[in-house]
Write a structure and sequence with these properties.
The complex is a heterodimer.
Chain A (H helix, E strand, L loop, with lengths): L1 H39 L3 H5 L13 H8 L9 H32 L5 H9 L6 H15 L6 H4 L7 H11 L3 H9 L4 H12 L1 H17 L2 H6 L8 H12 L3 H21 L1 H11 L5
Helix pairs in contact in A: 1-14, 3-14, 4-8, 4-11, 9-10, 13-14
Chain B lengths: L1 H46 L2 E4 L4 E4 L3 H8 L1 H33 L5 H9 L6 H11 L5 H8 L14 H13 L1 H13 L2 H9 L4 H12 L1 H16 L3 H6 L12 H10 L4 H29 L3
Antiparallel strand pairs in B: 1-2
The chains are: A mainly alpha, B mainly alpha.
């Protein structure tokens, strides 16, 4: 009896400890975020005053108006241009990745052909090639193609990524073959089976791969920094760093820039968090 | 007989048609793979052995000279030391934080989703946003020092102090990324059959014993995977010092190997030399990853 109630107490205490630990961690993650958002809605004079304020007592939209209306650099650009560039490049590239890798994934999952195993492992070895090794040769390739400072340099190279092929293959493998056989009897072509049977059935996988690709390309920093050099071509993450160089002393504007740049990815994340979490846990991809 | 022959030839052509269809499905991807991945990998090996000065337009084969230059390049070794220090610190920190968070998350139900969703959220942010936020947070009059002042401490100049700068960048990176290994560990923990824990408990094992003798050995593949992939990712650190410490400052305290490669390639246009450095680092990382997958293959077989 006595030891039983002690055990219950011990269990409760350890559960309480778990919650305390998780709450602390949660606060460590949330606090800077809340601070950033707060500062972005604060007048510059208020930011500099002591004591610091986390939630603005007199919120203002001035910082946001400033970053969207100010002409950045000599080229009379606003942040809209970079926002547009990011959306443009990311959307086109993501569509390309989805089409090209799902077709390849389909071949690996559902079709028989000589050299399949060898090819799969050969392509898969590209997983192990570290990014730093590709940086210079890829840059030279862009130069040879005349793609420096064009959006082609951002749109096309992601189509070579093997992750999409691997991911789609796993999904296609799990689809029961009766469905494909029914389509064969109906006289559908190989492409017809892929396009009208398998692709619609794998909408969740396509969506997940699309989200991952979108986040990856949207957030990329090093590659656009290397291949783009004029202000009007830049994507948001690089533009932000360049632009903030000039506004570095105005904290409110800097923070508004950070919020504008993260809002699209955070919205995507919150809407699709279930799919993202599941895909990360199942495949081991999605980190850095 | 006749019927059978007809049948085999029918299946043969069918097989052939399937193979042709497969290659057609693969063709677009293979095209991009060859151009944007295989091509650059091959040219990485060529570039390392040439003197390639983009500004002067020189391009000539010089054998191992670039690698000799690396040996004599003090900055390369300083940068490599910094990158190694950063990578080890960040990997260890990430594993400890992520594993603790995953163990805690696994044991609770109420609020599980909220904790998990918030803790992974920073992973989806770009390095420029992280860099911008944390340069402000770690500034002399930033949030962290304001917090310390509440306790009567004067605070530190995190990003300008040579001994604090790399640990500060490492903490920033852990904040940014621990959600990812956390999810991987969580998946691994869920895969451990509950009966094993019960058996250990019946045998009288304490919580600590269960952690060290049941849980950790069973999630060893996930641990190994995370340690190796995190190390490979973090030794290539670039954005953090590029944005937060003005490209490696103060002095060369946070100057990393990829910054050194980037600067040689895109500020000085020593393509051959930078390529040789990138190849050296790349090959070491590749072997590292290969060994890891061999080990993983062995461990996952029980």
């Amino acid at each position: 009896m006595h030891s039983d109630s002690r055990n219950v107490l011990k269990k409760r205490l350890s559960k309480a400890g778990t919650y305390v630990f998780l709450t602390l961690l949660l606060l460590v993650v949330l606090f800077p975020t809340v601070w950033v958002v707060g500062q972005s809605f604060m007048h510059e004079e208020r930011i500099l005053k002591w004591p610091i304020e986390i939630i603005p007592s007199e919120p203002t939209l001035d910082n946001y108006i400033e970053i969207f209306t100010t002409k950045l650099s000599r080229q009379e650009l606003s942040l809209f241009r970079w926002l547009f560039n990011s959306f443009y490049v990311t959307t086109l590239s993501t569509i390309g990745v989805l089409l090209v890798t799902s077709m390849a994934g389909y071949a690996f999952a559902r079709l028989r052909f000589p050299g399949k195993q060898l090819l799969f492992f050969g392509l898969g070895a590209s997983f192990l090639v570290p990014g730093v090794m590709l940086l210079i040769p890829s840059f030279m390739l862009m130069r040879a193609l005349g793609w420096i400072d064009t959006h082609h340099a951002l749109i096309w190279p992601p189509l070579a990524g093997f992750f999409g092929v691997f991911f789609m293959r796993q999904f296609f493998l799990a689809i029961p073959s009766e469905l494909a056989e029914a389509a064969v009897i109906d006289g559908a072509s190989a492409f017809g089976i892929y396009w009208r049977v398998f692709l619609p059935l794998s909408r969740p996988a396509v969506a997940t791969l699309g989200i991952f690709t979108f986040l990856f390309i949207w957030n990329d920093f090093t590659w656009p920094l290397v291949v783009l050099n004029s202000d009007e071509m830049r994507t948001l993450p690089v533009g932000l760093v360049v632009f903030l160089g000039e506004y570095w002393s105005y904290q409110g504007i800097v923070m508004a820039g950070a919020v504008v740049s993260s809002a699209p990815v955070l919205v995507v994340y919150i809407v699709f968090q279930r799919q993202i979490t599941r895909a990360v846990m199942a495949t081991g991809f999605g980190g850095r | 007989m006749k019927r059978q022959a007809a049948n085999t030839s029918w299946t043969l052509t069918n097989k052939r048609r399937e193979a042709i269809a497969a290659y057609l499905f693969l063709a677009p991807y293979l095209f991009f793979f060859l151009v944007f991945l295989a091509g650059p990998v091959i040219s990485a090996f060529v570039t390392a052995f040439v003197e390639w000065e983009l500004l002067r337009g020189t391009y000539r084969f010089i054998g191992l000279e670039n690698f000799q230059l690396i040996m004599e390049d003090d900055l390369f070794w300083i940068a490599l030391g910094n990158s190694l220090y950063f990578a080890i610190m960040t990997t260890v920190g990430n594993v400890i934080v992520a594993l603790s968070a995953a163990l805690a998350l696994k044991s609770i139900r109420l609020g599980h989703t909220l904790f998990r969703v918030v803790m992974y959220a920073p992973v989806v942010l770009s390095i420029s946003v992280i860099g911008i936020i944390f340069s402000r947070l770690l500034a002399p009059f930033g949030l962290l020092n304001a917090g310390l002042e509440l306790f009567g401490h004067n605070g530190f100049d995190y990003l300008a102090d040579p001994s604090l700068v790399l640990p500060s960048l490492s903490l920033t990176t852990i904040w940014w990324g621990f959600g990812f290994p956390m999810l991987i560990f969580l998946a691994a923990l869920y895969a451990v059959p509950e009966t094993l824990y019960e058996a250990a408990r019946i045998d009288g094992a304490g919580r600590r014993q269960i952690l060290w003798q049941v849980t950790l050995p069973l999630i060893r593949p996930a641990l190994l995977f995370i340690i190796v992939t995190q190390f490979i990712a973090h030794i290539q650190v670039f954005g953090q010092p590029y944005i937060m410490t003005n490209g490696g400052g103060p002095g060369y305290s946070s100057y990393t190997i990829v910054l050194h490669i980037y600067r040689n390639a895109f500020s000085y246009y020593h393509m051959g030399y930078a390529g040789a450095m990138a190849l050296s680092l790349g090959v070491v990382m590749f072997i590292f990853a290969l060994v890891q997958f061999r080990l993983l293959g062995r461990y996952t077989e029980y």
